[in-house]
Amino acid sequence: MHLNLLFAVDDKFAEHMLVTLFSIFRNSPTTNTYDVYVLQDQPLQQAAHLKAVLARWHMTYHPVLVDDAVFNDAPVSDRYPKSIYYRLLASELLPQDLDKILYLDADILVINDLTPLYQVDLTGQLYAAAMHTDFLNLTGTLNQFRLDTTTPHYFNSGVLLINLARARQQVHPQEIFEVIRSHKNVLILPDQDVLNKLYAKDIQPVADVLYNYDVRKDLVYQTTSQGKWSLDWVIAHTVCLHFCGTKKPWQPTTTDKYALLYKHYQHQLTRQLVD
Fold first, then answer.
1. How confident is the model at residue 54 (pLDDT cuts 50, 70, 90)?
2. How far is Cα of residue 83 from the mean position of the Cα atoms in its chain?
3. Max Cα distance, the chain (Å)
């Protein structure tokens, strides 16, 4: 199967994106092929290296330089750099012949086949994404009040399957920029907040325990499932481990069980690149 993948990274995060892509290659069918689009402010210094490495994994690297003119009317500051808009404006920034793409944050490890997520039916929907599990949906309720929305659903934007064909008709830059301006005092995660404020009703929910497992909430998952979603279950079924927050698995001081798994993939990648 052919998959279109989307990232938005700078030189600092390019090496982490490589770990994500390596994990996809290791755990998806070897017959899969990929076009990897990387949104960037300026050409990555590692572009030639990325292109060569990805070619080993049946992946084609497509750098997408973002035109500043797209953001002429956007509220941009240190807190709101233009990069926060990238995934929301993918339909404006990517080639017009693409109909579907999967956006992934670069702090994700894929430990099982990604293909079923890509095959989610988006008919009549803009996106597919996951809501993170919590007790009594307190997060969703609080965000519904904070963002003044009509739905208690609050989706994480780190794994986002995008219906580009539909987005070209329904996603409008000026509408996004206006939400940033009018809600600037209540936005915490601007791109994610805007996604939920404007498009929550047009998102097909997928299970976070499968496709956007927040490793910080391991105990919540186990408690909510009454022990069903154990470590063995996660290893066998979960597709995307998401290392949300400031504690990242590549940091030397991060030594929890999922960080150790990440470091293993990181080590395997390093060995492959040396060979």
1. very high
2. 13
3. 54
For residue 215, the tally of other CB atoms under 10 A from its CB is 22
Measured distance between the N- and C-terminal CA atoms of the chain, rounded to whole angstroms: 28
Question: Look-up: residue for tokens 């996004």?
Answer: 176
Radius of gyration over every alpha carbon of the chain, rounded to an integer in angstroms: 18
Kind of pairing between the strands at 127-131 and 203-206: parallel
The residue among 179, 174, 9 whose CA lies nearest residue 87 is 9
DSSP H helices, 28-73, are 47-56
- Check whether 169 has a pLDDT greater than 90: yes
Tokens for 122, please give them: 């988006």
Contact 61, 51 (CB under 8 A): yes
| Average pLDDT rounded to a whole number, residues 66-90 | 79
- pTM as predicted: 0.92
Let me know: does 209 contact 241? Beta carbons within 8 Å.
Answer: no
pLDDT 10s digits, 215-256:
999 999 999 899 999 999 999 999 999 999 899 999 999 999
Residue with tokens 């504690």: 247
* Strand-by-strand arrangement of the 59-65 sheet: 59-65, 33-40, 2-8, 100-104, 155-163, 127-131, 203-206
b or e along 77-111 (b: 16 or more beta carbons within 10 Å of the residue's beta carbon)?
A: eeebebbbbbbbbbbbbbeeebebbbbbbbbbbbb
pLDDT in tens, 97-121: 999 999 999 999 999 999 999 999 9
Delineate the domains of the chain, giving CATH numbers in brackets: 2-274 (3.90.550.10)
136 band by pLDDT with thresholds 50, 70 and 90: very low
